[in-house]
């Protein structure tokens, strides 16, 4: 009875639910247009609702549409209540069934736990019996074997096992010693047993196997050297840079020199008198005129001005047609950063290790010992030198693309790492590598390096890049020198780059001189106040008697071009001298270069 009533209720509710979801009773006052709007709101997506609402407002009958919408909502609420009433009894029945199922699961869980406990107890007993059986069988077998055979052959088997263990541990030198002991001592005592003959046959190729393994380890060592050569070279360059103060900037170096000069020199101030003479201001004696010995700086300055004027006029006469150079402020900033631009690359790495930490030299020492025991030391010496020569040829071969400074640094660092490893080996194994072999490798590498630099970098038109490359090559030379390698050809290479650098620098400054000359109005410089006067004096230290006493506006006996030419000439000479630093040039050679 209850079931039939519930079923009929479900059928009725289902029919009403289906009807509610697909149809509705229209509102008596609802027009066809409002009916269409309600249908659009129910069926359209969220992106088009705005268009429907806009159409409703355009019609003007918003209140009537609102009443129709409320009526539609009320109808849907009734349908929802019918659906909830329909499913309520089913929900109650489901909860009752779940409670019954919970009780049954609890009973099953208790039964399963009891069965599991019984199985565990039986399994433990069975496991103990099985372990005892296995144990006694092993004891019987071992006892029988020990009584029958192994008691006589135990030393041979122990040494043979030791030999196999040493081979697995790659201790080939100790394995050779054990092999000699087996062949000359233990095998002679058990020759009557057949297994000793088989054992002797298995031990006969051990020497060749050890030899092959030694060669294999040495090849792995060469591969590791190739992998870490760049890191070893970078670490060596870093140490050299710190030793030679490559990491100290020009400003820091100038500050230190200034502090040392202040400590050594007396407290003297220089002033300009009304008639243009230099006066010394002592804190104790007041002002005193500068003597003839004190006018050396003024004389040098006058000679420098004359030399600059001759050079400027000579440049103007040549009238070279070249491209516009870089801005001067950019060049100044770049030159200030050149000292650190290479060292930052070396110091950015946090490596605190040496060549011995980066690579294990044990395979080389082990090979020397093994081949010495095998009586083939000369064979390994020849093989080592040939392999290192082949590896050197690969290292000094430049990569196909060297477009940036980092490529050149990595190329030179790898070469440094190669020769640092060679230097360490010649120290630890002097019989393996001779000085003549090392010098021969270095000479071939040096020729290839110079050829690579001339062919890949010789035509570089960028003075900033050339200055950076000069520092890279100089650091490379100093690093190799610290390991005892000759670096005279590298200084010759830098001197050749110096001439190219000076020519490019001259070409750029010639263009700047010509451009400034074309822009010059050839009118004397006129200043309106003391600040402008001091600024001109700072750029071009020109002094004239009683000039400071003249009223403003004051006029200098030269145009803006003279000041610009003086500044650019000074910057040009500074650039030339910057490139010539640490090139092992005499003072006369540096003077000749500046004079040219």
UniProtKB/TrEMBL annotation:
The keyword Transport does not apply. One of its GO terms (cellular component) is exocyst. Residues 1-25 are annotated as: Disordered. Gene3D superfamilies: Exocyst complex subunit Sec15 C-terminal domain, N-terminal subdomain. One of its GO terms (biological process) is Golgi to plasma membrane transport. It comes from the Eukaryota. The chain crosses the membrane at residues 472-494. Residues 489-595 form the Exocyst complex subunit EXOC6/Sec15 C-terminal domain. Residues 69-236 form the Exocyst complex component EXOC6/Sec15 N-terminal domain. The keyword Transmembrane applies. Keywords: Membrane, Transmembrane, Transmembrane helix. PANTHER family: EXOCYST COMPLEX COMPONENT 6, SEC15. This is Exocyst complex component 6 (inferred by orthology to a C. elegans protein). It comes from Nippostrongylus brasiliensis (Rat hookworm).
């Amino acid at each position: 009875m209850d079931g039939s009533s519930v079923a009929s209720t479900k059928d009725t509710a289902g029919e009403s639910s289906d009807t509610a979801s697909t149809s509705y009773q229209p509102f008596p006052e609802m027009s066809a247009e409002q009916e269409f709007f309600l249908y659009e709101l129910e069926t359209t997506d969220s992106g088009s609702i705005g268009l429907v609402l806009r159409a409703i407002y355009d019609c003007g009958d918003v209140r009537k549409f609102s009443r129709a919408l409320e009526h539609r909502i009320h109808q849907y609420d009734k349908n929802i209540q019918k659906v909830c009433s329909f499913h309520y009894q089913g929900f109650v029945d489901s909860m009752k069934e779940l409670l019954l199922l919970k009780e049954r699961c609890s009973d099953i869980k208790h039964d399963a736990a009891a069965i599991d406990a019984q199985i565990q107890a039986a399994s433990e007993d069975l496991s103990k019996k099985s372990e005892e059986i296995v144990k006694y069988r092993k004891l019987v077998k071992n006892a029988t074997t020990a009584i029958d055979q192994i008691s006589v052959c135990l030393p041979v088997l122990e040494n043979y096992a030791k030999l196999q263990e040493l081979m697995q541990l790659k201790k080939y030198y100790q394995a050779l010693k054990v092999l000699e002991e087996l062949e000359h001592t233990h095998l002679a005592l058990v020759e009557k047993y057949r297994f000793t003959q088989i054992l002797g046959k298995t031990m006969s190729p051990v020497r060749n196997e050890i030899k092959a393994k030694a060669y294999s380890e040495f090849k792995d060592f060469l591969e590791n050297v190739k992998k870490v050569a760049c890191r070893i070279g970078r670490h060596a360059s870093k140490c050299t840079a710190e030793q030679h103060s490559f990491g100290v900037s020009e400003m820091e170096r100038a500050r230190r020199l200034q502090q040392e000069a202040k400590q050594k020199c007396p407290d003297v101030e220089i002033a300009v008198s009304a008639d243009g003479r230099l006066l010394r201001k002592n804190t104790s004696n007041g002002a005193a005129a500068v003597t003839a010995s004190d006018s050396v700086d003024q004389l040098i300055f006058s000679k420098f001005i004359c030399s600059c004027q001759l050079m400027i006029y000579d440049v103007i006469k040549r009238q070279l047609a070249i491209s516009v150079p870089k801005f001067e402020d950019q060049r100044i900033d770049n030159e200030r950063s050149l000292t650190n631009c290479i060292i930052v690359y070396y110091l950015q790495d946090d490596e605190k290790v040496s060549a011995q930490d980066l690579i294990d030299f044990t395979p080389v020492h082990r090979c020397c010992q093994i081949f010495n025991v095998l009586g083939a030391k000369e064979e390994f010496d020849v093989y080592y030198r040939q392999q290192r020569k082949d590896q050197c040829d690969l290292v000094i071969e430049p990569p196909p693309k060297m477009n940036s400074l980092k490529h050149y640094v990595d190329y030179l660092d790898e070469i440094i790492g190669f020769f640092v490893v060679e230097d360490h080996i010649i120290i630890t194994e002097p019989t393996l590598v001779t000085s003549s072999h090392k010098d021969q490798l270095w000479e071939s590498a040096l020729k290839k390096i110079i050829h690579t630099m001339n062919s890949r970098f010789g035509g570089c038109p960028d003075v900033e890049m050339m200055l950076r490359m000069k520092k890279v090559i100089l650091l490379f030379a100093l690093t190799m020198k610290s390991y005892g390698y000759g670096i005279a050809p590298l200084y010759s290479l830098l001197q050749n780059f110096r001439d190219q650098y000076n020519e490019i620098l001259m070409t750029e400054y010639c263009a700047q001189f010509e451009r400034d000359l074309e822009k010059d109005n050839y009118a004397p410089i006129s200043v309106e106040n003391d600040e402008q006067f001091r600024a001109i004096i700072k750029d071009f230290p020109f002094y004239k008697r009683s000039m400071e006493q003249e009223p403003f506006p004051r006029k200098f006996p030269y145009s803006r071009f003279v000041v610009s030419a003086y500044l650019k000439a000074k910057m040009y000479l500074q650039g030339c001298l910057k490139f010539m630093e640490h090139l092992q040039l005499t003072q006369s050679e540096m003077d000749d270069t500046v004079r040219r």
